[in-house]
Amino acid sequence: MTLLHLSGIRKSFGAVDVLHGVDLDVAAGEVIGLVGDNGAGKSTLMKTITGIYSADAGAIELDGRSILHLDPGERRRIGIEMIYQDLSLAKQQDVASNIFLGREPVKKMFGFIPGMVDKARMDREAAEMIERLGAHLPSINRPVSSFSGGQQQTVAIARALTFDPKLVIMDEPTAALAVREVQSVLDLIRRLKSEGIAVILISHRLNDVLAVTDRIVVLRHGRAEADLRTADTNMNEVVARIVGGGDTASAAAHELGGHR
Amino acid sequence: MATTATPGIWSRAQRASIDRLHIRLESFIVLLVLAAAMAVLSPFFLSVSNFLNILLATSTIGVLAIAATFVISSGGLDLSLGSVMGLSGVVGAYIAVNLGAPSPFGVGACILAGAIAGYINGQIVTRAFVPAFIVTLGMLGIARGLALVISGGRVIYGLPEYLLFLGQGRPFGIPVPVIIFVITALVAHFVLAYTRFGRHTLALGDSEGAARAAGIRVERQRRILYTISGGLAGLAGMIFMARINSGDPTAGLNYELTAITAAIIGGTNLFGGRGSILGTMIGALIMGVLQNGLNLLAVQSYYQQMAIGAVLILAVFIDQYQVRKETRA
Ligand SMILES: Nc1ncnc2c1ncn2[C@@H]1O[C@H](COP(=O)(O)OP(=O)(O)OP(=O)(O)O)[C@@H](O)[C@H]1O
Ligand SMILES: [Mg+2]
To answer: Where is the ABC transporter domain (chain A) (predicted)?
Structure first.
């Protein structure tokens, strides 16, 4: 069953044409790797899905219904979450505030003044979520700016998972992570898959992409240049498709060797 | 456990003060030290009537400082506060006196005039992408000019009875402006510290991108914030008009300076992301005590302006110094 359907997505920033008609389908519970050179347009494409950018042309459907008219908040509410490469966290706020940003539960103050944010519940559920991710944070009541890059990434991941998403887009989620944390993100992706949640993983670490995905989509010259089944492809082919012809053997060999 | 003097006590007290009261411990202490100094310097300082005087004098600035806190903690800036306050007082007085409108309209007109000015600020900031600094600086000039045009450059006298009560009434001995000020502060504190709107305001000032990605309607939030800011400037204008019993087109001149200073002293981050109304109230009281004390000591108001400007720079310096220290540690 197709969960997300993109067709003919175009996007330009002024004179810079970034996407020239991208097609992409993602099934429920499927893990897609999205790869491509720096500046290929991966983040831009994903932001048109979450509504941060509006596509100049093309169709975007979730469960067969167009979502083009929805704003980013509404798209989150129907189950599209994204861990952004650049729009990360509100750094002076604490863990719970970030995880629940835009979704704060409310209660009545003294039992009759409505609209009071239920901070105790937020803290409790945030702590549970962090625990469930197997992560360790020094304190959830500190501003997230006082955490390391990897710890902050954990908070961003927790935010994407707290509200039962259907699709989780991860834009370079492992860039700031140590070896063990990278493994736990990969495990997490497998777990999401087993729960029927679709994942789009953007990463330059091709070994990781080859390890966890079902399909690999290569973005090049503003199009989905290749759509490869992970089981049927290998490092050489992926690198060749990213770089586009020429002698790619040495680059592929480096990738293979580099992460061993 | 708090009885043993461990090195952690100060920092724990700082934490508790911020977590529970949303007030910086330092500003509390500055206020106490300042008050103690004034008490030593002037025999009139420590009296109930002078205390009420301070609160009364702080009420206008305090309401403006609440407005400044909302906007600045969202990463914005409103330099038009003082002028909009002046404009609102003139509009209210004009409608009440020259048009003879019935009672609620004079009050409503003040707040509405301010809110409209703020709404225009918000529209231009969010739709025309002109920086808030420029938009509200422009509004500072426009609102002041409009106040002078409406009033013909003259003070409007002869306010009706009910407006006088708002400025000079004293139920249970407490001046009405002080009551309005305190209620406004409590409501504002609840909104900023405990509601989704308040949390979104701080998150927006912290990182507009993160707020947008979380699904917050960033532009709408900003427009509401500038409108609130203008509305509060209108409320301040009404209080001031009722207190001096006239609509003065020069009311609120340079008040934005004091209001922004009060907010910053109270712990509002000039660049957004952090702010608390209770902290701002302490900041406003510090400014009030400072002005009151300088008045009692018969220091000329020219020097008072200089003192306020210096305090603003000092407050931002100390705040930034602490931020840099924390990020380095
Ligand atoms: N807001 C923007 N305004 C103008 N140009 C932009 C904007 N965002 C992206 N671009 C341009 O679009 C192109 C694609 O950028 P994008 O961030 O989508 O690439 P990417 O594939 O995610 O790259 P990376 O692997 O480095 O993250 C780049 O040329 C970039 O300069
Ligand atoms: Mg990118």
So the answer is: 4-246
Find the A5 Cα to ligand 1 centroid distance in Å. Answer: 22
With 0.80 as the threshold, say if the pTM is over it: yes
Q: Does B217 contact A104 at a Cβ distance shorter than 8 Å?
A: no
ipTM score: 0.86
> Which residues sit with Cβ closer than 5 angstroms to ligand 2, an ion?
A 43, 85
Separation of alpha carbons A48 and A68, rounded Å: 9
The CA A19 to ligand 2 mean position distance, Å, reads: 13
Q: Which domains does chain A possess?
A: 1-79+165-246 (3.40.50.300), 87-163 (no CATH)
Contact A71 B217 (CB under 8 A): yes
Using the atom order of ligand 1, give the atom closest to the CA of residue A45. 18
Q: Are strands A198-202 and A167-171 parallel, antiparallel or unpaired?
A: parallel
Q: Is the pLDDT score of B2 beyond 90? A: no
Nearest-by-CA chain A residue for B326: A146
Q: Which domains does chain B have, with CATH numbers?
A: 54-328 (1.10.3470)
Determine which of A100-114, A117-131, A154-168, B166-180 has the lowest per-residue pLDDT on average. A100-114
Residue pLDDT, tens place only, A78-134: 999 999 987 679 999 999 999 999 999 998 877 777 889 999 999 999 999 998 887
For residues A97 and A101, give the distance between their C-alpha atoms in angstroms, rounded to a whole number: 6
Q: Tens of pLDDT along B84-110?
A: 999 999 999 998 887 776 667 788 899
Please check whether residue B270 touches A, CB under 8 A: no
Tell me if residue A45 falls in helix, strand or coil: helix
Identify from A95, A101, A169 which residue to disrupt to test chain B contact, counting B C-beta atoms within 10 A and taking the largest count.
A101
Nearest residue to A170 (alpha-carbon basis) of A110, A106, A88: A88
